[in-house]
Amino acid sequence: xxxxxxxxxxxxxxxxxxxxxxxxxxxxxxxxxxxxxxxxxxxxxxxxxxxxxxxxxxxxxxxxxxxxxxxxxxxxxxxxxxxxxxxxxxxxxxxxxxxxxxxxxxxxxxxxxxxxxxxxxxxxxxxxxxxxxxxxxxxxxxxxxxxx
Length: 148
Fold this sequence. Notes:
It is built from six helices and four strands; from the N terminus they run E-E-E-E-H-H-H-H-H-H. It is mostly helical. It has two domains: 2-41, no CATH class; 71-139, no CATH class. Strands 1-2 form a two-stranded antiparallel sheet. A two-stranded antiparallel ribbon has the order 3-4. Helix 2 (71-81) runs antiparallel to helix 5 (112-128).
């Protein structure tokens, strides 16, 4: 994960890989990036920097974490469209999203009930976890198919 600081608004945000140009998710300013001095940041360091910057916004379930993903949005997607795996696509876990989608479409609704129940449990977990737990367990995990 690579940490960037916007020269316009001063907020920090991250990218998963090295890019030559970044767009600030807060103000939309685009800047060129130099990686001469920056090494890949560990998750703990990234989280420390993010939580120092936005300490009182951490309680809001719909606020974005350092990855730009909101546990509230993921929870709503899991609750209402989870049977087809839309929440997995939102979390960039396309393998799991495709599995849920295929199971729902090919089973004619029989196994869709199973994916729907799993998605409801996941929605509850999204809403009840802290932003840090959500990021660690669902967003930055190397697993392609995080269940619980």
